[in-house]
Write a structure and sequence with these properties.
The complex is a heterodimer of chains A (294) and B (173). Chain A is an alpha+beta fold and 294 residues long. Chain A is 55% helix and 13% strand. In chain B, 31% of the residues are buried. Classes of the chains: A alpha+beta (294), B alpha+beta (173).
Chain lengths: 294, 173
């Protein structure tokens, strides 16, 4: 078709109107009239704008996977935004998997809020973890966490061989301390015992926990029974010489201790029962002493 | 294949820069790096053609990536740790800002982007992706980390109007 100046002007106006509609209409306008294909650059501009419009619509409705095929500054800038949103998604997934080192630095003010949230979440998780593993009165491992670690040591020894020992420790006359001096004094006695356990030369690989009211247990990895008895004796000796101070009053406490060593085929219960029995033997024959499993 | 090689790469060839450049230091301008790279690209293309040139740059990138992993990163089997180390060192050395969009190691698919890329950010717009060296570099880093060979393709590039370079890595097994 030959384009006269009038015709050209009309086509140009139509082209502008179609592009404007594409930017402003709520619904996608129908295909532009065929004659606009003759306007230089119109088809390319129209298809780019249509793709940009579709992409923005998809992103704003939550579909981050929408593919943008057009090249150039405008589609490129939208792809950069898409990339940022994808990074954010990935980083959020990493945080959900427990990686609290993730930080965002490409989303302006949002980055700051996001990073503060991750820091708080990290701190909260650490607190929760501590609370879940710790006996609040003494600060030692609680029963649940101690048994978890005990089981792990048992599994490790079963798999790789070797030896380890288990020590059961029960405060003597603890009921009497509570009855005569009050529960706060009893609590202080338990805390004193923990301080003694922490300062009696246990190794970094050894661990202990409060497994009952006045009952504590120690696991000594890679340790033969003779060495375990020596460690138990250090604890017993230090404890009997430790002054428990409560509201200006001083008193002493002692513990009866039973020791068992890993035997092939052992379970948590079997090791625990032998140490428990040994500990009761120590009670029966006079307290403040150590008995070894039979 | 040449038997009597003159230019076998070794990390030592990078030299002792502290001793060698006491006044000018260890950095130079990005233009100088690009001048070198694009001059090589031009001349190599004239000798061996476009396809071979891209292949050479990919392979050179892979060699550099392998050496870079060996000398600049601490080996790890944890993907997060690997990404964290890589992000830090690439940023520190002014190579680019790496971010992960997706990483599914079980499927062997990774999509990552590099912004402010040393090779291409700020280049005039072209109608083709240009970071073949980066493709090879990333493929070697991923292979060194995972033990799996990856084919890396740049799907978006500054040169094609995108503000960030996007790379898709697919495991070959």
């Amino acid at each position: 078709m030959t384009q006269t100046p009038d015709n050209s002007s009309t086509l140009l106006k139509m082209a502008v109107k179609n592009l404007q509609d594409l930017l402003t209409d709520r619904t996608v306008p129908p295909e532009p009239p065929e004659e606009l294909a003759d306007v230089a650059g119109f088809s390319q501009l129209y298809s780019t704008l249509l793709e940009v419009r579709t992409a923005i619509r998809e992103f704003s409705s939550g579909n981050l996977d929408h593919q943008i095929t057009k090249k150039g500054y405008l589609p490129g800038s939208i792809k950069a935004l898409q990339a940022s949103l994808h990074h954010l998604t990935w980083q959020t997934k990493m945080i959900a998997s427990g990686d609290f080192s993730q930080r965002v630095d490409f989303m302006g003010e949002f980055s700051e809020s996001f990073n503060s949230m991750v820091t708080l979440l990290d701190e909260s998780m650490q607190k929760l973890g501590f609370m879940a593993h710790t006996d609040p009165l003494t600060g030692s491992n609680n029963r649940g966490y101690f048994m978890e670690r005990f089981d792990a040591e048992l599994d490790r020894t079963k798999r790789y061989g070797g030896v380890f020992c288990f020590i059961m420790l029960d405060l003597d006359h603890f009921k009497s301390v509570n009855d005569t001096r009050g529960h706060a004094a009893g609590d202080e006695a338990l805390r004193s015992l923990c301080r003694v356990l922490n300062s009696s030369g246990l190794r970094n690989t050894d661990f202990f926990g409060r497994i009952g009211g006045e009952e504590f247990a120690i696991v000594l990895p890679e340790t033969k029974i003779q060495e375990a008895v020596k460690a138990a004796e250090r604890v017993r000796g230090n404890l009997e010489n430790t002054i428990v101070l409560h509201e200006g009053n001083e008193f002493f406490i002692t513990a009866s201790i039973g020791v068992s060593a890993y035997r092939v085929g052992d379970t948590r219960e079997s090791m625990l029962n032998r140490a428990d029995q040994a500990m009761y033997n120590a009670k029966e024959i006079g307290r403040n002493r150590i008995c070894v499993e039979t | 294949m040449i038997n009597d090689r003159k230019y076998i790469f070794s990390w030592e060839l990078l030299g002792d820069i502290t001793v060698g450049r006491p006044n000018l230091g260890s950095t130079t301008r990005v233009e100088v790096y690009r001048l070198l790279q694009f001059a090589f690209r031009d001349v190599i293309e004239q000798h061996v053609g476009t396809e071979e040139t891209d292949k050479i740059f990919y392979e050179a990138g892979a060699l550099a990536g392998k050496e870079f992993y060996a000398h600049m990163l601490t080996p790890t089997t944890d993907l997060n740790e690997f990404v964290r180390q890589l992000q830090e060192v690439l940023k520190e050395l002014g190579i680019g800002i790496l971010r992960v969009e997706r990483a599914d190691m079980e499927k062997g698919e990774i999509i990552l982007t590099v912004s402010e890329d040393l090779d291409c950010s700020g280049l005039p717009e072209l109608d083709y992706e240009i970071c073949s060296y980066d493709e090879g570099f990333i493929s070697a880093l991923l292979e060194c980390f995972s033990g799996i060979k990856f084919i890396v393709k740049e799907v978006d590039c500054w040169c094609t109007g995108d503000r960030t370079c996007r790379f898709k890595a697919i495991a070959t097994v």
